[in-house]
Design brief:
Keywords: Ion transport, NAD, Potassium, Potassium transport, Transport. By secondary structure, this protein is α/β, with parallel strands linked by helices. The chain is built from 15 helices and 22 strands. Helix 1 links the parallel strand 1 and strand 2.
Length: about 450
């Protein structure tokens, strides 16, 4: 597949590295030679200095033969314009990063499709969804709802109160049990488990279940004593914070601590809501945190632009008694360190955005792709096509590669777990987990 990426910034360079490993034909365009040099010589791709809104630059990059054009510069107008030009010059599909929430409305997206933009992405809005999914369940590191909760994936840190430790999964998670363990992160290793694998203390385990059995999962992992989040403290009042706070349930009371006085005034204007309080101050100021009631706060969310600040702030909040912490960590090199410090939920906008763009590379009918950063694994929602390989045999006889497991499916709006004897039918929406496997190797089973 031929792919052009416009913008050698955080999302663009991360995507370029990710896609070049998949042996795609990548061209990265940027106006800055310095930005392009930062991609390094270890990536198999072409770089081009030029403006993505230049017709000549686009033609020189071969846009007329491009399968996917991705515009992820920091400038919204550049992304929109270059995507429209790319489509009209022959690109099959286009993606543009935007910063205006108005553009994400369904009617607006249809309007942009008519102009030639196949998909719009707003990374801050995607991150806000992940943040709120975590806050709604204080005992869960990561939550992903499929088909409005017909299936639910829960990433849970296992601690001393867990009832299902040190027991083969075949004894505790059989075909008749209401959950499957689809992935385990243990230290630096990711395990796609079989029947003889066991859950260990401090594992990060990924459970697939249905909405009805979430209370049961909470009980067996020993998290019933975790209180629900009603008070949230947010450090940093940037765009991600704004989108997250606007999407918070009404029962949550929120305080935003922002050190820039002008930004505080702006936040007061756009967040005119009686359950949101804007505080001018430094979120690292422990006396300020104490004065604002951090010891009675159930969740602390650090969303400044500095990963080190966010990590340290979450560690401080934990030591002051906050059970649920969320940190924005944009530097990928810091992610493993944050996990080893038991920070809690980690948010990385470029990885979230990359997951949404990655699904456009697949020829199969893919509803969603997510990268589980903590487990270094992908989870995708495939639609099984008529006469596809996956519908020919029971799951146990499909010959899926090592590192792949099917966690569940949705049929006619109803979620169900998958066992070896399950027969997938055309039209089923199937959840597939992959570790160290190119998703393109999996899609052939579904088309």
């Amino acid at each position: 597949m031929k792919i052009i990426i416009a913008g050698a910034y955080a999302i663009g360079t991360h995507l370029a590295r990710l896609l070049s490993r998949s042996k795609e034909e990548i061209t990265l365009i940027d106006e800055s030679e310095e930005h392009l040099a930062s991609i390094g010589s270890d990536c198999d791709l072409l770089t081009m200095i030029g403006k993505p809104t230049s017709l000549q630059t686009l033609r020189d990059a071969g846009v007329q033969d491009t399968d996917l054009f991705i515009a992820v510069t920091p400038v919204e107008s550049t992304n929109i314009t270059s995507s429209i030009l790319a489509k009209n010059l022959g690109a099959k599909r286009t993606v543009a990063r935007v910063d205006n929430p108005e553009y994400m409305e369904p009617q607006a997206q249809e309007f942009f499709k008519e102009l030639g933009i196949s998909k719009l992405i707003y990374p801050e809005m995607l991150a806000a969804v992940d943040i709120n999914n975590g806050l709604k369940m204080s005992w869960v590191r990561q939550r992903w709802d499929v088909h409005d909760g017909a299936l639910v994936m829960l990433g849970i840190k296992l601690r001393e109160g867990c009832e299902i430790l040190n027991e083969p999964l075949k004894n505790i998670s059989g075909p008749n049990d209401p959950y499957h363990v689809v992935a385990i992160k243990r230290g630096s290793d990711t395990i796609i488990p079989g029947g003889n694998d066991e859950l260990k203390l401090y594992d990060l385990a990924y459970f697939m279940t249905t909405r009805n059995y979430i209370p049961y999962i909470r009980k067996i992992v020993g998290k019933e004593h975790y209180v629900d989040v009603k008070n949230v403290m947010v450090m940093g009042g940037g765009r991600t914070a704004v989108r997250a706070v606007k999407k918070m349930p009404e029962y949550m009371e929120c305080k935003i601590i922002e050190k820039d006085e002008n930004r505080c005034e702006y936040l007061n204007d756009i967040l005119d809501d009686n359950h949101i309080l804007i505080i001018h101050g430094d979120g690292r100021d422990i006396p300020l945190l104490t004065e604002e009631g951090i010891r009675s706060t159930q969740a602390f969310v650090a969303l400044t632009g500095n990963a080190e600040t966010n990590i340290l702030a979450c560690l401080t909040a934990k030591r002051m008694g906050v059970r649920k912490t969320v940190a924005a960590v944009e530097n990928v090199d810091y992610v493993s360190m944050a996990e080893s410090l038991d920070i809690g939920t980690i948010i990385n906008k470029k990885m979230i955005a990359a997951s949404y763009i990655y699904q456009m590379m697949l020829d199969a009918d893919v509803m969603n792709v997510r990268f589980l950063m903590s487990a270094n694994a992908d989870v995708a929602e495939f639609i099984a096509k008529e006469d596809s390989k996956v519908t020919k045999k029971p799951v146990k006889d499909l010959g899926m590669p090592i590192g792949v497991t099917i966690g569940g499916l949705v049929r006619n709006g109803e979620g169900m777990l998958v066992s070896g004897n399950t027969q997938i039918e055309p039209g089923d929406s199937v959840m597939v987990f992959c570790h160290n496997i190119n998703m393109k190797k999996i899609e052939k089973y579904f088309i």
